[in-house]
Write a structure and sequence with these properties.
Blueprint lengths: L3 E4 L4 E4 L8 E5 L10 H19 L4 E5 L6 H10 L3 H18 L15 H13 L3 E4 L2 E4 L15 H7 L14 E6 L14 E3 L1 H13 L3 E7 L3 H16 L5 E7 L2 E3 L2 E2 L10 H4 L5 H9 L7 E3 L1 H24 L15 H8 L4 H20 L6 H18 L6 H12 L5 H16 L3 H13 L3 E5 L2 E5 L1
Parallel strand pairs: 3-4, 3-9, 9-10, 11-13
Antiparallel strand pairs: 1-2, 5-6, 6-7, 7-8, 11-12, 14-15
Helix pairs in contact: 2-3, 4-6, 6-7, 9-10, 10-12, 11-12, 12-13, 15-16
The structure holds zinc ion.
Zinc ion binds next to loops.
């Protein structure tokens, strides 16, 4: 079965046919590095992380690039406010973003270009667009002439005349048309600037992504991704200038856009003051719960972040690890056995092949978790074959979902480190005494239950000749 994906460019679900299956290319717009990243950035990065993992899982050789926009008005303003250099500010937030992504289990893309390291290419593209008649210099600025390309608006479905009617009278008299956008901006004193044929200046945002994308992946790429908010004008402009430059259509064969994260049904915005940083979300929640929460909806749908939804995700992750651990305990022969036949994994593949439907996959996995618990209730050892199938299923899917990939013990330790110890030392000591009693009376089931119960709370027991010690 081929992978089918929803292409924003055509508005249809299409079969994924890469230009060259041996060299699939994907680019996703990364963050503008002037502040801590929020949960919306996490959603985009996690979505394209899973897509890249799954394409590889399906056998494609993929090169995936995600950029950092490290020169921008917002960076300049923030650097001035803090009285630090733009480089220093950008470097700080690139580091923070990378740390946040690592926490969330987002694998490093193959290429992580920065705008400031692609200036030569940006100037070359801008010069070529002027030569081809698609752009014009005006003083120290260069603008792209939107009306020069007839299919402008094809991604967003916007019509040039309607845009024109809605355009505010532009105060920038350097532009020939209010719709035109800047490819290059002459710099004001104190701003980061590079030498160019138009004087000292810096690139506009849209041309940066065209240049970084072509620089790393070539003139025509397979998949271009980003958040839904980037469709217009960023991606529309990327298409216009890239296709005008190369003369090749389409610039990207498939455009994939992830949906927004709303906070308690409100759009995240500065004015509402409800922007949720990844770091804040990670306080009191395991990264795995956040990742599961993000993957529990289809990547294109909007999702609503609430404390309850996070709690639900946290409980679901707990439930899954508890089940794996229960299988280990009650039916150890189920573990380590690879279970493969033609159909065992088909429903999961079918869901992922259908526009990367992780929501469906997670639903299927939790059905299996319920089944595993039922089989264990009925007597695990009689169901070893079926239980081994379920364990294999979880393990296989965890490779591209990037969740449920730990040993239960490691998960419990991590959870304790994040959530803290929810049990008092007195209670731990009491349980240790109860366990000692149970062992004396050869009630090993109860003794083991206590040990496992404590482990689930992140408390590790160690039996030594001079008694049982605990650590957390
Ligand atoms: Zn971009």
């Amino acid at each position: 079965m081929p992978i089918r994906l929803y292409n924003s460019l055509t508005g249809k679900k299409e079969e994924f046919v890469p230009k060259d299956p041996a060299n699939v290319t994907m680019y996703a717009c990364g963050p503008t590095v002037y502040a801590m990243s929020h949960i919306g950035h996490a959603r985009s990065a996690v979505s394209f992380d899973v897509i890249s993992r799954y394409l590889r899982y399906s056998g494609f050789r993929l090169t995936y690039a995600r950029n950092y926009t490290d020169v921008d008005d917002k960076i300049i303003n923030r650097a001035n406010e803090e009285d630090v250099s733009c480089d220093e500010l950008a470097e700080r937030y690139i580091k923070a973003f990378d740390e946040d992504m690592a926490s969330l289990g987002v694998l490093l893309p193959d290429a992580r270009p920065r705008a400031t390291q692609t200036i030569g290419r940006i100037i070359a593209l801008t010069s070529a667009l002027i030569e081809k008649g698609f752009a014009y210099a005006s003083g120290a600025d260069v603008f792209y002439s939107v009306r020069k390309k007839k299919d402008y608006g094809k991604l967003s479905g916007k019509n040039i005349d309607e845009l024109e009617a809605g355009a505010r009278v532009d105060v920038n008299e350097a532009k020939a048309d209010p719709l035109d956008f800047a490819l290059w901006k002459g710099s004001k004193p104190g701003e980061p600037a590079w030498n160019s044929p138009w004087g000292m200046g810096r690139p506009g945002w849209h041309i940066e992504c065209s240049a970084m994308c072509m620089d790393r992946l070539g003139e025509t790429i397979d998949i271009h991704g980003g958040g839904r908010d980037l469709i217009f004008p960023h991606h529309e402009n990327e298409i216009a200038q890239s296709e005008a430059y190369t003369g090749k259509t389409p610039f990207a064969r498939y455009w994939l856009h992830n949906g927004f994260v709303n906070i308690a049904k409100e759009k995240m915005s500065k004015s509402l003051g409800n922007i949720l940083n990844i770091r804040d979300a990670l306080t009191g929640h395991t990264p795995e719960a956040i990742r599961l929460f993000l993957l529990s909806s289809h990547y294109r749908s909007p999702i609503d972040y609430t404390q309850e939804s996070l709690k639900d995700a946290e409980n679901a992750v707990d439930r899954l690890y508890k089940t794996i651990e229960r299988v280990d305990r009650e039916c150890p022969e189920a573990n380590g056995k690879e279970h493969r036949d033609e159909q065992w994994f088909a429903p999961i593949i079918e869901a992922m092949d259908d526009d990367f439907n992780t929501a469906m996959v997670i639903g299927l996995l939790f059905k299996e978790v319920s089944l595993a618990n039922r089989l264990l209730d009925e007597g695990g050892r009689d169901n070893a074959q079926e239980l081994s199938r379920i364990l294999s299923l979880i393990k296989e899917a965890s490779g591209f979902l990037g969740v449920f990939d730990k040993a239960p013990e490691d998960y419990y330790k991590l959870r304790r480190a994040v959530i803290g110890l929810k049990i008092s030392p007195d209670e731990i000591e009491r349980l240790i005494s109860e366990r000692n009693e149970a062992r004396k009376t050869k009630d090993f089931k109860r003794a083991d239950e206590i040990r496992r119960g404590l482990l689930e709370q992140g408390v590790v027991l160690e039996d030594a000749p001079d008694g049982t010690k605990w650590s957390a």
